[in-house]
Specification:
Elements lengths: L1 H9 L1 H8 L5 H22 L10 H22 L5 H7 L3 H13 L5 H21 L6 H23 L5 H26 L6 H29 L1 H6 L4 H13 L6 H18 L3
Helix pairs in contact: 1-10, 1-12, 2-10, 2-12, 3-4, 3-9, 3-10, 4-8, 4-9, 5-12, 6-8, 7-13, 8-10, 9-10
Length: 278
């Protein structure tokens, strides 16, 4: 389940790049949130899922702020000036960030081997980022690092809640929670940013809404609940490699030698983290 989630997420950046061909950045983020919330709300209503207890709403708000709003907004802004390949490798730091948040929030204590492999993977990604940016961080990198922090918090809180309620309900209620803000935001953004509907832009918006924002998170949170947040998080080290493949196939991007080598190196780190004892 966690691996299926990673596969869905790996298409997010290429789909966002497609969406930006016809939508402005703010419109894209708002529209994807509205569409995903309508899908999730429809499922919750159809199955007559009871409203979560009051004690769970604070956690759902963290999921909403990090996964539904923060990460999509910051990565979309970054992709205006960054290639999907570069953004994907920078986001390779997300597994380590999520493992750290999990250790602080839930008290999990992975082994030293796990941390060594996670840190090695993060170091490889950091080195790639510095090399690609010429030794200085770009504005896109600042957006991406901010996205890492808010997304890791959302993943951690969602993984914790998925032990209490089904994973699809976690993201479903988080999306519904954002609907009162997303609808007026979409209306305002669409009135200011011109929209040009093309096959690419429509397909991109539909995927980030239904695939990345809802279905991917459904299986992702279920996987996190089953195998634990730290171990599941390290599977995302494979996400940059998958996104690099999509960026070539779907966007026609040309990769530097460093990008696939970096992605391959973090795959080695994945193997170690998955075999490390808890």
């Amino acid at each position: 389940m966690a691996a299926l989630g990673v596969t869905a997420f790996s298409l997010t950046f290429p789909a966002t790049a497609w969406g930006l061909e016809g939508f402005g950045p703010w419109s894209l983020v708002a529209v994807r949130s509205v569409l995903a919330a309508l899908i999730a709300g429809g499922c919750l209503l159809a199955l007559r899922v009871p409203v979560p207890e009051r004690r769970h709403w604070a956690g759902l708000a963290v999921v909403a702020a990090g996964v539904v709003v923060g990460f999509p907004m910051l990565t979309t802004l970054a992709l205006q000036t960054s290639t999907t390949a570069h953004a994907a490798v920078v986001v390779g730091l997300l597994p380590l960030t999520t493992a750290l948040f999990s250790a602080l929030r839930t008290g999990t204590r992975p082994s030293r081997t796990f941390w060594a492999a996670a840190l090695a993977g993060a170091a490889v990604v950091a080195a790639f980022t510095v090399q690609q940016s010429g030794g200085a961080l770009s504005t896109a990198d600042v957006y991406l690092f901010g996205a890492l922090l808010v997304c890791a918090a959302g993943y951690t809180e969602g993984g914790r809640l998925a032990r209490i309620m089904p994973g699809w309900q976690v993201i479903g209620w988080a999306l519904v929670l954002c609907l009162p803000v997303a609808v007026p935001a979409a209306a305002v953004a669409l009135s200011y940013e011109p929209v040009r509907l093309t096959a690419h832009s429509v397909a991109g918006v539909l995927w980030v809404a239904a695939g990345s924002q809802f279905l991917g998170l459904v299986v992702w949170y279920r996987g996190m609940a089953a195998i634990g947040i730290p171990k599941a998080s390290q599977l995302q080290l494979a996400q940059p490699l998958l996104t690099l493949v999509w960026s070539v196939l779907l966007l026609g991007e040309h990769l530097t030698v460093a990008a696939p080598l970096t992605a391959a190196a973090v795959l080695v780190c994945i193997a170690v983290t998955q075999r490390a004892r808890g």
